[in-house]
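User: Hi! I'm a student and our assignment asks us to look at how structure tokens line up with a sequence. Could you show me two examples?

Assistant: Happy to help. In each example below, the sequence comes first and the structure tokens follow. Example one:
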Amino acid sequence: MHAEQAYLFRHSFLRDAAYQLQLPGDRARLHTLAFEIIEELAGGPPPEPPPLEAEVQPPFQPHSTDAFAEELAEHSASGKSEKSGAARKFYVRRAAEVAHRQCRADASERLWRWHAELATGEEQYESLRRAARVAHDAGRMQVAENLYDLALAGFRTLRARRNEGGTLGNMGSLFHDLGLIEKSEQAHQQAQAIHCEVGDRRSQGISLGNLAGLFYETGRVEAAQEWFEKSLAILRETGDRRNEGLTLSNLAILLKRAGRIPEAEQRYEEALGIHRQIGNRRHEGHTLGNLAVLYQSLGRSEESGKCYELALTIHREVGDRRFEGISLGNQAGYFLAIGQVSQAERLLEAALAIHREVGNRRFEGLALGNLATLYLETGRYPEAESHFEQALAIHREVRERRYEGIHLCDLAILRVVSGRAQEAHAPWNQGTGILREVNDPEELDRRRADMRAACRQAGIAVIAGAEERG
């Protein structure tokens, strides 16, 4: 054994006991000495950042003290002077930012909460908002909502309108991820009104993109594309590369659904380039997952499989449980397409468990519907019908109109092939009506073809409407 290792504590209790044997004054002096030595050996303090609540935040600049930021915060916490208090708050903030960049969500949330205890005024509530955003990204939705509520109440008390608008926008995104579409749209509209009132152009661009996504998901496709384009123009004007990349990826989803595949692929590639350029690993994973779906729809199986694996690796690296569940569900479709039904079923069940864990109601409904489709295709009709009914209940709750239409059509097909054709008319008519409403002729044609095949399989006349052209 090396001499330097002979005095390592074998158990934390021994370390704590030795620590408590020191007189309080001696402990404080030792902490101050440790702080000074560590900071000096690490190259001195990082530059002073702008106020946390400032409108413009420069990109994070790594520093040689970053590996010791939390340790420096803890050593400075023993001092009672104004200098030690300022150092503590400085390094707690630094440690929170470093933990976030390293995708250590638990540590980042804890450190932002600590920073909120040390701060006052707008800075205190901005710390809580940042803690909420970390919790949201990690899928801790109830924790995030509680922290956003505290931050929003604080900003309103202080009449800090710009930060009030930003927090409402964050809450709109949280409500969207919870499947609370009406609350989401209301929060984003309120945020947009405040951004216009205070002249915050960058935040206006972000809100327009968020509202465009909601318009798209609720069938307002033309308005969605218009607002995506307006959002991109403002984000480019204000130099917000992060949200430009995110909006490009969301616009690509709309273009893919509209059948404009080359444009969609181009937008995804542009978004991916931006995410990689600025080191945005989380949204790099999201965009890779979306590219995998696009390649799958084009029959480019090898590219699709590689993108799924890369996306899942990134989701797990950054602790993004929500999108891990989404990618698992999409990857299940890939395995189903290549005939690996058992693997597809396992992935769908894993995805469903994650959606329920993180409270992702919209994708819980999609996973239930996809499992129902798998059961239908493998002849497990009672399980299929039960899952379709559960999926439809969630689609209606979260106003997921397109998949409500798709799964109503699938439920009608199920009733035909299981010998209950007389019960198929109502869901078929409702489903095709919704697909016309959301202007998805490609999906409507696909469901008509499925219904004709089901009727041939059942040896009955084609269900009324299956041959109509909407």
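Example two works the same way, sequence first and then tokens:
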Amino acid sequence: MIKKSISLTAEGKKELEKELEELIANRPAIAEKIATARAFGDLSENEEYSSARNEQKMAESRILEIQEILKNAKVIRGGKRDSVALGATAVLDMGGREVEYTLVGPTEANPLEGKISNESPIGKAIFGRKAGETLEFNGKKIKITSIK
């Protein structure tokens, strides 16, 4: 089976590594919650035990997910670009409202932080465009004023 490489910025990779460290460091605390809840008796009606086991399953699942992402990660380099590419920040004029979007892979996309996926509709629309270009997106004109 061929694994697809996952594009990450250096910052995104560091954030995932930090999250992985925190999840691994939290393993003993979760195990302690399970042991304490187990001591309460009948596990079939023990909400604390069920909750702790669910927390453990979620943490272990996320650990495996992050490890797989990091194993297949390709770090994209920023730098000065003449067109919108992964890792670049595009400054857009959206009808008099200026917004900045950093184009990232889908793994680290977070629109609330201005990080949009290259696979999102707006990401696809601006990818490869140059500063000064105007395009139409969802019936609105968007101008790429600069690329950082």
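Here is something you could point out in your write-up. Residues 6-75 form a domain with the Helix Hairpins fold (CATH 1.10.287.180).
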